[in-house]
Design a protein that fits this description.
The chain has 127 residues and is mainly beta. The protein has a single domain, classed as Hypothetical Protein Aq_1857, Chain: A. The protein is built from 2 helices and 9 strands, in the order βαββββαββββ. A 4-stranded mixed β-sheet has the order 3-2-5-4. It has a 3-stranded mixed β-sheet with strand order 1-6-7. A two-stranded antiparallel sheet has the order 8-9. A hairpin with a 6-residue loop joins β8 and β9. The radius of gyration is 21 Å and the shape is globular. One of its GO terms (biological process) is iron-sulfur cluster assembly.
Length: 127
């Protein structure tokens, strides 16, 4: 019978890095989303991107009844939003905020992945 040989070898400990957040929500965004979800016909909000504008991509928010098969869920301060799986590469690491001024009220995104954006601010591109 052949003997089994074993040897011990020192290995470096692997360091686990924290997973980068898909997206974060500011307190104002959380408040506005809570107001939206308090409506009698409240549904889920899915965030995605569409091909639009002169730079290629624009954010798209839509109400949905249930998550898509590959949607990612972001939960913060009791608020849940969905991120379309096709938009993950474009959105990862972004911050969603709610801004109100004299002329409008809207969600805005601070996105570290943007490489170019159009002059009007409607669309962007990532590389």
């Amino acid at each position: 019978m052949a003997a089994l040989r074993t040897s011990l070898r020192a290995t470096k400990k692997s360091r686990l890095r924290p997973r980068k957040a898909i997206m974060t929500l500011t307190p104002k965004a959380v408040e506005q989303l809570q107001r939206l979800f308090e409506q009698p016909d409240a549904r889920l909000v899915r965030i995605g991107v569409k091909n639009r504008g002169c730079s290629g991509l624009a954010y798209n928010l839509e109400y949905v009844d249930k998550p898509g098969k590959f949607d990612e869920q972001v939960e913060q301060d009791g608020v849940k939003v969905l991120v379309d799986s096709k938009a993950l590469f474009s959105i990862i690491g972004s911050e969603m905020d709610w801004i109100e001024d004299k002329l409008s009220a809207r969600f805005v995104f601070k996105n570290p992945n943007i490489t170019e954006h159009c002059g009007c601010g409607e669309s962007f591109s990532v590389s």
